Amino acid sequence: MLNVFLAFLKIGFLGFGGGYAMLSLIFAESARFGLSVQQFADLTALDGLIPGPIAINSATYIGQMYGGFWTGVAATLAVSVPSMIFVPLYMHFETRIKNNWLLSAILNGIKPAAVGLILAVALSLLLTTVFGINDIFSLAQAHVDWVSIVVLVLVLGLDLKWHTNPVLLMLLAGVIGAVAFYL
């Protein structure tokens, strides 16, 4: 339980850019506890359906999978501790922080890195779910999962053309996946 607590405490302190930017850090830490890429893909899908911050949902899910209920509680508390520390500090020093050009420059530099981390997670999930490989260097062993491609194209098309609600898109993808699994 202590290992999970410390891992999610680290995620809470080092995770910048919001939940999606933290996904690569969450995956890297969770892989140490035996989380597979497929389980991580399931976690990412659940994060879209379950209300709440991605980091807290992920911590609860992974903690519960690794060590049961109390480990899930410990992981959830660990990922929340940094916010409990930084938010009051920020509120106390808000005017000084807003007027600090160096801190603003640092935070502006973190934004592209956060986008890169999100893209890295998206690529990793794409390679695993659509092509069945773990890294881009294994393309020779790739086999295409046509159901995943159909779901990807359909969901992307519905989102771009009609701006369909993301929850409905996830439910549609789940239904298509379930039907394809049982056929």
Number of DSSP helical runs = 9
Structural class: mainly alpha
Low-confidence stretches: none
The best one-word shape is: globular
Radius of gyration: 19 Å
The string of secondary-structure elements, in order, is HHHHHHHHH
* Sheet with most strands: none
Per DSSP E runs of 2 or more residues, the count of β-strands stands at 0
β-strand percent reads: under 5%
Mean pLDDT: 90
How is the topology of this model organized?
Blueprint: H1 2-14, H2 19-31, H3 37-49, H4 54-67, H5 69-92, H6 94-98, H7 101-131, H8 146-162, H9 166-182
Helix pairs in contact: 1-2, 1-4, 1-5, 2-4, 2-7, 3-4, 3-7, 4-5, 8-9
Describe the structure.
This protein is mainly α and 183 residues long. It folds into 2 domains: 2-133, no CATH class; 145-183. Helices cover 80% and strands 0% of the residues. It contains 9 helices and no strands. The protein has helices at 2-14, 19-31, 37-49, 54-67, 69-92, 94-98, 101-131, 146-162, 166-182. The protein is globular, with a radius of gyration of 19 Å. It starts with a helix and ends with a helix. The mean pLDDT is 90.
